[in-house]
């Protein structure tokens, strides 16, 4: 197993830290207040930047801000964690929306619109992480 | 034997329609989901139903969720019951420090006086107390509405329980007053050392009209359907211990099913037959069991009136609805609850509107995500369960005038008893074959 003593080391470490940044982006500790407001897509991606990405850990020149965590993804994540539509793990988001619709739960139409366009993640928030 | 062509008896016919689509899992794709999905679908389906029944039951009491409970305030909550059982075997018992609490001889029934009922919905759980709730009647997985009050200790003191009750039933059709019979048999156990091949051959001969005089044959000509409810073969257990099989043992494995196919082909040549898989048949383990494959029955599958069906199986014959299983659901209820007889378990599943409430807790089940196929939507006219100890039957009535014939089909390999039902008036009698000479 190759190891590197510096943060800006070889390929493996870079890939490892890149993954860490993504999970850092979804911690709710400082985004709670934001999630209650109506979505403000331009700001949500920059929220976690200070806590999860201290300058010492930036292994390449640009800040990895955009990922897949923008305003639309935030809307879909709120749909994922909403208890009223049932558990989200093990189903694709569109299947879960269809289930909620056929059970008469009136899930939000803009979630359906975002999912059918197809550019965003089709699997839920926790998929592949638990 | 002369064949007199003018006196050929014609067998009666019925219009058959299978309603097994919800039990087939060919279209399902497993995505790594857990059982929380099927529990959610079940809770939501039944909660919507129970909410619609609440205004007729207790219109003045407010409804809330588990998290919304307030102390000393009466309310109604709807949720899934969970029964915490002291004697229920758990994999963690192996690691527990007090080994003496679990007996070495496993009891068949795990009910104990200290069993505790808990009500759960998406927001939380609450412990249930009260004399109204007899824990030995209920099992994990039923959805009910409870009228109760939260006590100081955080428990819920139950005053009244509402079950979903029998679903709506279509009226029994008046079909010109003709007697048409359906024969139910289960537990044929072809290939087992205790089953008698002569008994099964007698049954086949009776159904196909090769037994008896003209009067007998005219009775047999009124049989329109045969239903075989599970456990039709019994593979010798000694062969299935994980060792590689010699070629002569391999042929021993397939002999029971070949023998069954020969006999079934005789029946299928003359009367429609439905065969359901059971716990010991070569089908998948978890419910809903998928139909036994056509290639197992090369002789019988040539007839299009031979149908291999799922377990549970539901069908309509001349607009009379039938629903039944090969016994796994009722046997599981027997392990985790108590009743006076098996028919009482059958009645309870109908009143709870769920074929197998203990699935997936203690009964293997496919992890559906968007539906619960065991939910009983329309009340059947005939509700049967196979592979039971003895023949029992009862007619039960529902609150809206529903009438259901409950049938426990005994194991044919042990008892030699089949059940015959008259679809005109839902009357039932036993057909017993003895092969002992003298007594």
Automatic annotation (TrEMBL), chain A:
Q: Give the residue ranges for region: Disordered.
A: 1-53
Source domain of life: Eukaryota
InterPro entries of this UniProt entry? DNA_pol_delta_4 (IPR007218)
* Pfam families for the chain: DNA_pol_delta_4
Protein's name according to its UniProt entry: DNA polymerase delta subunit 4
UniProtKB/TrEMBL annotation, chain B:
Provide the organism lineage as a comma list: Eukaryota, Viridiplantae, Streptophyta, Embryophyta, Tracheophyta
**Name the UniProt record assigns to this protein:** DNA polymerase delta small subunit
Determine the domain of life of the protein's source: Eukaryota
Query: What's one GO-annotated cellular component?
Result: delta DNA polymerase complex
Position of the signal peptide: none
The entry sums up its family as follows: Belongs to the DNA polymerase delta/II small subunit family.
Q: Which UniProt keywords apply?
A: DNA replication, Nucleus
Chief subcellular location equals nucleus
CDD domains, per the entry: MPP_PolD2_C
Q: Where is the DNA polymerase delta subunit OB-fold domain?
A: 34-161
Q: Where in the cell is it found?
A: Nucleus
**Residues of the DNA polymerase alpha/delta/epsilon subunit B domain:** 182-391
Gene Ontology process terms (BP): mitotic DNA replication
Q: Which InterPro entries match?
A: DNA_pol_a/d/e_bsu (IPR007185), DNA_pol_D_N (IPR040663), DNA_pol_delta/II_ssu (IPR024826), PolD2_C (IPR041863)
């Amino acid at each position: 197993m190759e190891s590197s003593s510096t943060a800006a080391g070889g390929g493996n470490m870079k890939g490892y830290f890149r993954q860490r940044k993504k999970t850092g982006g979804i911690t709710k500790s400082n985004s709670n207040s934001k999630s209650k407001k109506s979505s403000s897509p331009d700001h949500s991606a920059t929220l976690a930047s200070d806590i999860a990405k201290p300058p010492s850990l930036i292994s390449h020149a640009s800040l990895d801000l955009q990922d897949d965590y923008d305003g639309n993804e935030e809307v879909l994540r709120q749909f994922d964690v909403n208890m009223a539509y049932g558990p989200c793990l093990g189903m694709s988001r569109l299947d879960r929306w269809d289930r909620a619709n056929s059970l008469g739960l009136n899930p939000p139409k803009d979630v359906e619109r975002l999912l059918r366009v197809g550019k965003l993640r089709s699997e839920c928030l926790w998929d592949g992480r638990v | 034997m002369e064949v007199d062509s003018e006196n050929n008896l014609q067998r009666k016919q019925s219009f058959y329609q299978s309603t097994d689509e919800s039990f087939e899992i060919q279209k399902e794709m497993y995505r790594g989901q857990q059982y929380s999905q099927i529990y959610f679908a079940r809770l939501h389906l039944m909660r919507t139903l129970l909410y619609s029944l609440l205004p007729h039951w207790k219109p003045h009491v407010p409804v809330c969720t588990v998290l919304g409970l307030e102390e000393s305030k009466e309310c109604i909550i709807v949720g899934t019951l969970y029964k915490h059982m002291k004697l229920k075997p758990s994999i963690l018992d192996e690691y527990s420090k007090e080994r003496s609490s679990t007996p070495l001889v496993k009891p068949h029934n795990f009910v104990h006086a200290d069993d505790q009922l808990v009500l759960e919905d998406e927001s939380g759980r609450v412990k249930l107390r009260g004399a109204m709730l007899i824990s030995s009647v209920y099992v994990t997985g039923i959805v009910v509405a409870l009228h109760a009050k939260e006590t100081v200790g955080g428990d819920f003191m139950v005053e009244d329980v509402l079950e979903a009750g029998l679903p709506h039933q279509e009226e029994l059709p008046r079909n010109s007053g003709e007697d048409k019979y359906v024969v139910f048999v289960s537990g044929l156990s072809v290939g087992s050392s205790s089953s008698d091949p002569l008994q099964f051959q007698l049954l086949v001969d009776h159904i196909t009209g090769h037994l008896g005089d003209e009067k007998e044959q005219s009775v047999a000509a009124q049989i329109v359907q045969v239903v075989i409810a599970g456990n039709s073969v019994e593979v010798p257990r000694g062969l299935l211990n994980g060792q590689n099989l010699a070629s002569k043992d391999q042929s021993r494995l397939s002999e029971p099913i070949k023998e069954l196919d020969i006999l079934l082909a005789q029946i299928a040549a003359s009367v429609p037959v439905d065969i359901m898989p059971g716990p010991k048949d070569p089908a998948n383990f978890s419910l809903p069991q998928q139909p036994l494959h056509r290639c197992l029955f090369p002789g019988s599958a040539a007839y299009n009136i031979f149908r291999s069906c799922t377990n549970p199986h539901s069908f309509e014959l001349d607009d009379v609805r039938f629903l039944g299983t090969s016994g796994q659901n009722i046997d599981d209820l027997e392990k985790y609850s108590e009743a006076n007889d098996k028919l009482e378990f059958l009645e309870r599943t109908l009143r709870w509107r769920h074929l197998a409430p203990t699935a997936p807790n203690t009964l293997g089940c496919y992890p559906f995500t968007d539906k619960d196929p065991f939910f009983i939507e329309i009340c059947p006219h005939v509700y049967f369960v196979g592979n039971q100890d003895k023949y029992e039957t009862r007619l039960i009535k529902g609150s809206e005038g529903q009438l259901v014939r409950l049938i426990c089909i005994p194991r044919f390999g042990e008892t030699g008893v089949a059940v015959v039902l008259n679809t005109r008036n839902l009357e039932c009698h036993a057909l017993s074959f003895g092969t002992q000479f003298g007594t």
